[in-house]
Amino acid sequence: MRMSAGYLFITLFMVMFSVLLLGALGEEKKAVSFEKTLEDTDIKKPDIDQNSYIYDETGAVVSELSKGLNRRYLDIEKIPRTVKQAFLSTEDRHFFEHEGVDMSAVARALAVNAQAGSIEEGGSTITQQTVRNLFLTHEQSYNRKLTEVLYSYQLEQEYSKEKILEFYINSIYFQNGIYGFETAAHYYFGQSSSGLTLAETAFLAAVPANPSHYDPLTKKENTKKRQEWILTKMQETGAVSASRAAEAKKAPVELHVSETKNLYPDYTFYVEKELKELIRKKEGFARRMKKAGKEEKKDIEEELQNRVREVLSSGVHIETSLNPDLQKEVTAAVNRQLRGKNGNGAAVVLDHRTSRIKALSGGKNYEPYTFNRAFQAYRQPGSAMKPLLVYGPYMDQTGADKQNFVDAGRYCLHDYCPANAGGSYPGQVTLKTALARSYNTAAMRLFETTGIQQSFSYLESFDFSRVNADDHHYAAALGGLSRGVSLLELTKAYTTFSNKGEYRPGRAIEKVTDGDGKVLYEWGETSRSVWSEETNQELRHMLRSVITEGTGRRADPGSGEWRGKTGTTNSYHDLWFVGFNSRYTAGVWIGKDNPDTLGAKLRSTHLDLWKDITEGLSDE
User: Which intervals hold domain Glycosyl transferase family (predicted)?
Assistant: First the structure.
């Protein structure tokens, strides 16, 4: 009874398929047109997740980003012939002959399934498998199978056979989170598919038939057996000779598992953050945010996050200014100076000639996607803020130069009485000396003369994201900001001193392109004038004195015309030094993730770290 019902179903199913396919192939019948049946079938261009790549300044890949499925996409022209033949020989020998469905294979599968009383064999073509991977589920049902047939026919009308084969080879699953043959080649053998032997190619081609059963890492014996079967099928179809197949069967297969590349996680994590800001600006999210209410802002932010994920899943190429040698030196210096110490830190190096970020350390022994202190830690900058908020605005407004005098004696403003480090109150000193020795009382007098509002207006040219009206108080003159600044923000601001008083935002990203090389995003920003060139030149002289005779003497690398400024907050919670020569601007920060007093052993580490980094930086 069971067998009779099974064969009856086969007969009815075959009749239905025949009617549909006759219409699909355009034969003149009085059946309902297959095209008509497909009018409402939504076959879109396959949206296949692809890995994106980050490049350093030399054009080398330093990071591979998998924000969707882990997939290295390869165009059909770049897929090796043996890879294509391995799948054509085993999955669909008549691929270039049928129009999406191989009726002989379907009949065979239906017979087997009827005998078993369940779905044991699919009879699917490569086109059908592609449809299943891209548009449908892997549910085992006749309803899904019929839908698969409809989609397969439409896919064959939309795309060439070569393109469908390309979709297939890039969409099949290879276990362990790996999609596509090229990705599998890199993961399991550490190289491109073009470099695989015939034995290795057939070995990988075995996996998609049943990824868990043929897992190369845990079921290698199973994989090897199917590899030999695949080589036999390739011989039968003439894809390889008998001798080559025999030789490949005997050849040993050694795996060389290679994880996704991320050579400089400190830097590349920031690149992803900068990409988000680039998309925010270029696609209008920033403009919409300014006009939105609180709840709407949440929705816009979520939309932006989705957009960034979409971009990174589309296989973009992100070209950056990363200097790999300098990055290695900076991260090594941070690890070296902070080894065994109860604290952490960060470092940033920019080339202010080009306004490009060359190296960035997020902390000692930094792990990917963890808290990055270079751009995520917002702390009070201490006296490192004085050149930007106090001396620059005062000198620009009054025309004063480095030899003008200011009183560094005791001083109080409305019960706020700052002290000078070391308890020294020398009275009248030059602006040069006041900055070099970092006298707080002198800075307060200058700040009051310029005025809080006027002084803060100068900061609007910079990219201090968390400085706001709540900071408009006298303690700000000494770096007492409510929400603080990041090391990257502060270091970028200091590039103004090397650009004649103009600020050009430092960036990591040069441009973002698609797989065809079309530019999708790039910054293209102009500079912003902060203060006069004359004021800037005076400030440069004064910042040189910080290193030659002031609080930054220990940081002097001993060669080159370096200039800079120290910063220390109350109770030694934060230590800063930012400085520059004729080409580079470098900044360092030392502190604890949960703000606390740094021990005596750490209180000069910021100067030692900065010196360690800058000793290797020349003007060339």
Answer: 59-235
Report the predicted TM-score, pTM, of the whole model to 2 decimal places.
Answer: 0.87
In tens, the pLDDT along 279-304 reads 999 999 999 999 999 889 999 999 99
Beta strand segments in 439-593, E: 502-503, 509-513, 519-521, 528-529, 563-568, 574-580, 584-591
Pair 150, 82 in one domain? yes
Which tokens is 365 given?
């022994």
> Which residue range is the domain that position 7 belongs to?
1-40+78-161
Q: Contacts for 237-246 with beta carbons within 8 Å, 24 or more apart?
A: 237/85, 237/88, 237/89, 237/93, 239/82, 239/85, 239/86, 239/88, 239/89, 240/82, 240/85, 240/198, 244/198
Taken as a whole, the chain contains a residue count of 620
Query: 203 with 248, same domain?
Result: yes
Identify whether residues 14 and 152 lie together within a single domain. yes
3-class DSSP state for residue 151? helix
Tell me the CB-side half-sphere exposure of residue 568, using CA atoms within 13 A. Answer: 20
Q: 163: exposed, middle or buried (C-beta count within 10 Å: 0-12, 13-18, 19+)?
A: middle
How far is residue 439's CA from residue 477's CA, in Å, rounded to a whole number?
11
User: Which of 141, 161, 181 is where one domain is finished?
Assistant: 161
In this structure, the answer to whether residues 121 and 194 fall within a common structural domain is no
Estimate the share of the chain in helix, then strand, then coil, as percent rounded to the nearest 5: 50, 15, 40
| Residue 383 is a catalytic residue | yes
Q: What CATH number does the domain containing 188 carry?
A: 1.10.3810.10
Distances (CA, A) of 619 to 29, 354, 377, 584, 616: 81, 13, 29, 7, 10
Selected catalytic residue, list 52, 193, 383, 461: 383
Strand 70-71, strand 178-179: pairing: parallel
Give catalytic status of residue 124 as yes or no: no
Token look-up 């549910």 returns 139
Total domain count, the chain:
2
Question: Which H, E and C letters describe 380-397, residue by residue?
Answer: CCHHHHHHHHHHHHHHHH
List per-block mean pLDDT (blocks of 10 residues) for the chain, which spans 620 residues.
42 46 40 47 73 97 91 96 97 91 70 56 80 74 69 88 96 96 97 97 97 97 97 97 97 93 96 98 95 92 96 96 98 97 96 97 97 98 98 98 98 93 94 98 98 98 96 96 97 98 98 96 93 98 97 92 96 97 97 95 95 86
Q: Encode burial over 536-571: b for 16+ CB neighbours within 10 A, e otherwise.
A: bebbbebbbbbbeebbbeebbbeebebbbbbbbbee
Amino acid at 37: T
Pair (201, 240) in one structural domain: yes
What is residue 412's DSSP assignment?
-
pLDDT digits (tens, 9 = 90+) for 117-139: 544 455 689 998 998 888 876 56
Same domain as 136, residue 85: yes
Q: How far apart are CA 344 and CA 217, in angstroms?
A: 39
How far is residue 282's CA from residue 287's CA, in Å, rounded to a whole number? 10
Q: Using the 8-state DSSP alphabet, how is residue 379 labeled? A: B
pLDDT of residue 312: 96
d(CA 587, CA 465): 18
Sorted by sequence, the CB contacts under 8 Å of residue 551 that are 6+ apart come out as 383, 421, 436, 437, 438, 566
Q: Are residues 203 and 245 in the same domain?
A: yes
Q: Is 135 within a domain?
A: yes
In a domain, 463, yes or no: no
Q: Please check whether residues 99 and 236 belong to one and the same domain.
A: no
